């Protein structure tokens, strides 16, 4: 690992992907941006502010679920969905603030690769690294090299952009593509690793770098019969230098195979796809970069959005969930305490209101955690069901940035960023 002089850090500017994306697209048009694996047509569509929204390709056939994930998936903890496993919310009852590794949801585009930390190398390369003009100067780090750098620990959620997607259909009658998650495509862990900023500076970051693109070592992703290459998504440099980690521990254990062993990227507050697992290389580019994961996927398309789609998704939205099975039953006349959690990508959770009568009246829940960015807040509320029959429990959170969960989420064709209050069915017997 070369010890190059450390360039002065850039100020961690607020990341405005909308404005930057427009710039990035203009640069592509001018021949100044690379877009491997993204068709010219797709980019032109994104550029054409007046073009009609294009039809999205259907997701590829799912692989056999039992070959894609290494850890056990007991049915009382997980709902298997193709190559993915959703955590059951009732299984989180009684777990602490952090989701145990065994219970953490898994989102795999293909299959968990079983990698050995001692054979693993991280390669940094590209036009955004310093070196003589035109010189391709990749820099490599081994697992022990990363372990020798200053370590940082932080609590953060990883949440799929499509978490809650099925509620677009069940509550709003909309047809959306993608894995029909309920609310269990989220987990919170204590991650330990090194700052991506430290690794980039040691690699010799050039003042001209603009995008950083980590890529996974899992197999190429095939969608609609076409290989889109290995999972990768560009991050603007400002975010990469701000709070992104290269994590090698999860809740005090070496990163489990399914969660990116030996090293994954952890991008706090952003949609899960940014947190590339099994990272093998990072392109550091002086030109803007595109991949299918910031063009075709992970933008908002549909009648409520710009014809060319929204800017690439960044922060997660706001949600709440009860630590209860769907259709849970309660004995009439018996005092209960309902438990749940709320979280937001825009800040901590300031307030949670609960309705036990289908949304007619609301009471404040007791918060169990201090409002903290990038993680959830546990809450509880007493309830004594008085009338037998079916009803809905609802929880509505407000975050420290002032966002409150709406009654209806603005739809998009791929069902991302569901934020509306979820109606949780229960039966009183
Ligand atoms: N290399 C690689 N990284 C990846 C993925 C993947 O399939 N391959 N899935 C992404 C998506 S869509 C999500 S939501 C998160 C899920 O992280 P987890 O499986 O550790 O819960 O990982 C992201 N990183
Ligand atoms: Mo995801």
Automatic annotation (TrEMBL):
<keyword id="KW-0500">Molybdenum</keyword>
<feature type="domain" description="Oxidoreductase molybdopterin-binding">
    <location>
        <begin position="109"/>
        <end position="293"/>
    </location>
</feature>
<dbReference type="GO" id="GO:0020037">
    <property type="term" value="F:heme binding"/>
</dbReference>
<dbReference type="GO" id="GO:0006790">
    <property type="term" value="P:sulfur compound metabolic process"/>
</dbReference>
<dbReference type="InterPro" id="IPR000572">
    <property type="entry name" value="OxRdtase_Mopterin-bd_dom"/>
</dbReference>
<dbReference type="GO" id="GO:0008482">
    <property type="term" value="F:sulfite oxidase activity"/>
</dbReference>
<dbReference type="Pfam" id="PF00174">
    <property type="entry name" value="Oxidored_molyb"/>
</dbReference>
<feature type="domain" description="Moybdenum cofactor oxidoreductase dimerisation">
    <location>
        <begin position="337"/>
        <end position="420"/>
    </location>
</feature>
<protein>
    <submittedName>
        <fullName>Sulfite oxidase</fullName>
    </submittedName>
</protein>
<dbReference type="InterPro" id="IPR036374">
    <property type="entry name" value="OxRdtase_Mopterin-bd_sf"/>
</dbReference>
<dbReference type="InterPro" id="IPR006311">
    <property type="entry name" value="TAT_signal"/>
</dbReference>
<dbReference type="InterPro" id="IPR014756">
    <property type="entry name" value="Ig_E-set"/>
</dbReference>
<dbReference type="GO" id="GO:0030151">
    <property type="term" value="F:molybdenum ion binding"/>
</dbReference>
<keyword id="KW-0560">Oxidoreductase</keyword>
<keyword id="KW-0479">Metal-binding</keyword>
<dbReference type="InterPro" id="IPR005066">
    <property type="entry name" value="MoCF_OxRdtse_dimer"/>
</dbReference>
<dbReference type="Pfam" id="PF03404">
    <property type="entry name" value="Mo-co_dimer"/>
</dbReference>
<dbReference type="InterPro" id="IPR008335">
    <property type="entry name" value="Mopterin_OxRdtase_euk"/>
</dbReference>
<dbReference type="GO" id="GO:0043546">
    <property type="term" value="F:molybdopterin cofactor binding"/>
</dbReference>
């Amino acid at each position: 690992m070369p010890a190059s002089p450390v360039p002065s850090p850039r100020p961690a500017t607020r990341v405005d992907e909308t404005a930057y994306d427009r710039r990035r697209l203009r640069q592509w048009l001018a021949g100044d941006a690379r877009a491997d694996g993204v068709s010219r047509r797709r980019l032109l569509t994104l550029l054409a502010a007046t073009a009609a929204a294009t039809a999205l390709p259907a997701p590829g056939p799912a692989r056999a679920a039992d070959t894609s994930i290494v850890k056990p998936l007991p049915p009382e903890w997980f709902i298997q969905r193709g190559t993915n496993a959703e955590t059951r919310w009732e299984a989180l009852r009684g777990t602490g603030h952090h989701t145990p590794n065994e219970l953490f949801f898994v989102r795999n585009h293909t299959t968990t690769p079983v990698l050995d930390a001692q054979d693993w190398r991280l390669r940094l390369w590209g036009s955004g690294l310093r070196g003589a003009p035109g010189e391709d100067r990749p820099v490599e780090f081994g697992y022990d090299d990363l372990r020798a750098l200053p370590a940082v620990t932080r609590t953060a959620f990883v949440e799929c952009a499509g978490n809650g997607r099925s509620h677009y259909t069940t509550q709003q009658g909309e047809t959306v593509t993608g894995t029909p998650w309920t609310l269990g495509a989220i987990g919170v862990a204590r991650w330990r690793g090194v700052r991506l900023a430290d690794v980039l500076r040691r690699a010799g970051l050039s003042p001209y770098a603009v995008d950083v693109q980590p890529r996974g070592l899992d197999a190429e992703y095939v969608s609609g019969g076409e290989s889109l290459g290995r999972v990768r998504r560009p991050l603007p440099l400002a975010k990469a230098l701000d709070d992104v980690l290269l994590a090698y521990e999860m809740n005090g254990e070496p990163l489990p195979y399914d969660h990116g062993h030996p090293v994954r990227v952890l991008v706090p507050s952003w949609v899960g796809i940014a947190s590339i697992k099994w990272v093998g290389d990072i392109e550091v580019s002086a030109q803007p970069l595109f991949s299918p994961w910031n063009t075709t996927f992970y933008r908002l398309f549909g009648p409520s959005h710009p014809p060319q789609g929204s800017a690439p998704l960044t922060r997660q939205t706001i949600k709440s969930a009860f630590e209860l099975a769907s259709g849970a039953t309660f004995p009439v006349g018996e005092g209960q305490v309902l438990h749940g959690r709320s979280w937001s990508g825009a800040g901590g959770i300031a307030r949670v209101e609960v309705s036990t009568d289908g949304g007619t009246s609301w009471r404040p829940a007791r918060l169990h955690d201090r409002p903290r960015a990038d993680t959830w807040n546990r809450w509880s509320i007493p309830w004594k069901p008085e009338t037998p029959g079916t009803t809905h429990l609802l929880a509505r959170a407000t975050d420290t940035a002032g966002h409150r969960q709406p009654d209806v989420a603005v739809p998009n064709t791929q069902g991302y960023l569901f934020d509306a209050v979820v109606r949780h069915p229960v039966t009183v017997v």
